Fold each of these.
Amino acid sequence: MSSFLPFSERNLILTGAIGVTQTQIGRELAAALSMPFVNVDQIIAERLDMTIDEIRAYYGETRLKSIEAEIVEETALRRSTVIRVSGRTLINGDNYAYLAATGMVFCLMVDLDAMLQRLHISMGARYHDPKDRALALGELERERMVHRLDDLHRMNVTRMTTDEIVATLATTWRSLIVRSSTPAPSNNDG
């Protein structure tokens, strides 16, 4: 999808499941690959000086999607960058098309049991409130919709440490660079 850009200029886009420490992974991966790191959700929050949930509550979902689209368009102008974007943001409007046109999208996935366990841990006592749990499960389902997108490089990280995830992604990225810089065999018979 991003064949118009030389591989050396393509972005590595990270998305995936709630509970996976994508921001930490993104930062460590960017450092390992000597690339800058951008977190789309962080840019949105900093721009409005509110959390994503506060933006949604104060301005509404429609305005949040508009802000997300604006930030994604700006982010798509970057080159050779590790970009972290939530699955929820990625599936809205043309966000996926904008970002996928600039690089490769890696979806970090975990098994459903692990995802529910991480959700339980992250919510603490609120997990036992049926209303809060229902809201969190709805959010989880929206995040999982990213799995339906085409041209994703899916990676199950359920039983991997952060270091293993970073190492695997870095190795994969480097092998893709080598593969893209190797000339195709010539069909000349000589």
Note: The beta strands are 11-16, 37-39, 82-84, 103-109, 152-156.
Amino acid sequence: MLTVIAIIAVLASLTITTVRGAMRNAKKAAASSNLRQIHQAIILYANDHRDVLPGPASIAIYPWVNLPANPGHTAHLGNFLAPYLGAPPALNFGFLDVLRVPGSPVEHDMDRAPATYVKLDAVDSSPDNIWGQWAGTMQQAADASIRPKRINGLSETARRSSIITTADQESWVSASNTSLPATGIFDGKRLHLFIDGHIKLSSAMRELR
């Protein structure tokens, strides 16, 4: 009898481990799919704006957007990319699932909503900064003196560097934001998107190809 119980316990443990692994893989696959759609939206935006990348914007990418965005709204990439992600032309703090890392908290309150992805910045004056000047609001984005780069004009370093990653307290450079996980959500690793659409899993803060 004890042998049977031991065998059942071992089988249950193996089943739980397998299910957890499958859930992690499904979450990673869904997040990768979201990043591919975000990349496609970036390319479509650039095609409509003379090859210029979206922005300037804040570092955080939230799952909610405002269309049309007024000067006081947050300048996150979602507000620039929403029309290319299937959002309707009029959307007041509307939720876009593609901008959310699967499994991350859902919060429609703009003051409490955690970032789900973050854009990776070089300093404003760096030749490898592709996004232009940091901007907290759409008005700041409109007034920014340092504009986003054209895709065809990107430096080799910028082309080799990841441009967006999954959000956590380290990648968002704010350990005080306890609504975010402490580190990479995929067993301590992050998904990194590159300008060519390539996606890589890595524990690095900013990944190079």
Note: The longest strand covers residues 91-95.
Amino acid sequence: MPPPRAGRKTAGASKEQKMKEEEIVWQGPSSQIINFGTYFMCGLLACLAVLIFIALGRLVEHPARFLVLGLLLVPLGAVFWKWTVNRCRHFEVTSERIRITTGVFSRRTDELELYRVKDITLIRPFMYRFWGLGNLVLTTNDSSTPTLTLEAIPNVQNLHEQLRKDVETCRERKKVRLAELE
């Protein structure tokens, strides 16, 4: 068996190949805290429906009062739908791109290459800070996605720093420069 020639790839991956491999930085859905307002209002409506059922039970012994309990289906259905929609929106941030998969019945996946990102803004609303969450707003050169918001992301500060580094690395690798015209 002849020895391997110079320049020929052997069993181990080279340093350059490892550098080019895409790594997952973060993945998951937004926190359910983004639906807090809906959950709160639906909870109030459910309590109101139960109170009306109890009050009608004391005044009238008619089977129609059970229709009021049917009103519970509206807020419960709304809560279930909002939870499902948020759960079915999945973000995957890698060292080269961001993938957003959305849809409950039909799925759609959009990708944004990191070298297209012009600016990253970190926003930590008061309500989100209680749970250690924040938003990342990315301004891009992509015509289909000029602005992308990753909403209610945990550990957002570290993701912001990692994204900033990965954007610069992708630009250097692809030899892309942003020209800012004023």
Note: Residues 1-12 have pLDDT under 50 and may be disordered.
